[in-house]
């Protein structure tokens, strides 16, 4: 799946899609994910089914403590989770991403071994201050890593492949998480 991250006039991205890649089918523990999201981000209302291997289902997690003011109403920011289907053929763009993934030298090999993908993205959060958006995506990422097993993370806005263990370690300090 190739999705271009669109940069807004303020320098931030319109959406922060993150691909989770795995060697084996990705199974998400829905109750664990909802509990972890609530612990990290406050009140959560989940709708839809957690996507499973071979399905095109969409799960939305409405983050009730992150209201987004629109012209005529207020809605909660959301995290969307969808199964991305089988991994697409390696393209020149992916080759470039793998080559610039210096923090995870094994990225190219792990990418070749992965055949399952799940996509996480925040939605409706563009009007929020960037600190709130960072909190949503960082905590959504960590919550998903607690609720499932994956082998590789494609952080699409930075065009890097990252190790899930490295992500968890880099966000293990609550002060670091607050700054991101």
Mean pLDDT: 81
Strand order of the largest sheet: 2-3-4-5-1-6-7
DSSP strand content: 25-35%
Helix and strand content put the structural class at alpha+beta
Can you count the helices?
A: 6
Q: What fraction, in percent, of the residue positions are helical?
A: 25-40%
Gyration radius from CA atoms, angstroms:
16 Å
Shape: globular
Secondary-structure element order, N to C:
EHEEEHHEHEEHH
Number of separate strands: 7
Distance between the termini: 26 Å
Q: Tally the structural domains.
A: 1
The main sheet comes to: 7 strands, antiparallel
Low-confidence stretches: 1-13
Give me the secondary-structure topology.
Blueprint: E1 18-22, H1 30-41, E2 44-48, E3 58-69, E4 74-86, H2 92-99, H3 107-113, E5 116-123, H4 130-147, E6 152-155, E7 160-162, H5 164-170, H6 174-179
Helix pairs in contact: 1-4
Describe this structure in words.
Strands 2-3-4-5-1-6-7 form a 7-stranded antiparallel beta sheet, with helices on both faces. It is globular, with a radius of gyration of 16 Å. The protein has 180 residues and is of the alpha+beta class. It contains 6 helices and 7 strands; from the N terminus they run E-H-E-E-E-H-H-E-H-E-E-H-H. The chain has helices at 30-41, 92-99, 107-113, 130-147, 164-170, 174-179; strands at residues 18-22, 44-48, 58-69, 74-86, 116-123, 152-155, 160-162. It has one domain (18-179).
């Amino acid at each position: 799946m190739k999705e271009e991250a669109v940069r807004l006039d303020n320098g931030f991205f319109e959406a922060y899609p993150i691909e989770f890649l795995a060697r084996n089918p990705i199974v998400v523990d829905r109750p664990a994910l909802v509990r972890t999201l609530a612990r990290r981000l406050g009140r959560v209302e989940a709708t839809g089914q957690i996507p499973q291997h071979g399905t095109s289902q969409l799960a939305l997690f409405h983050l009730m403590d992150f209201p987004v003011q629109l012209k005529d109403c207020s809605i909660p920011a959301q995290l969307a989770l969808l199964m991305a289907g089988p991994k697409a053929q390696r393209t020149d763009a992916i080759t470039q991403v793998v080559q610039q993934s210096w923090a995870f030298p094994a990225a190219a090999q792990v990418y070749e071994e992965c055949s399952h993908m799940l996509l996480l993205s925040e939605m409706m959060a563009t009007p929020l201050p960037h600190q709130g958006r960072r909190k949503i995506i960082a905590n959504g990422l960590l919550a998903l890593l607690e609720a499932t097993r994956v082998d590789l993370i494609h952080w699409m806005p930075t065009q890097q492949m990252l190790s899930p263990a490295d992500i968890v370690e880099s966000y293990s300090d609550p002060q670091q998480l607050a700054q991101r």
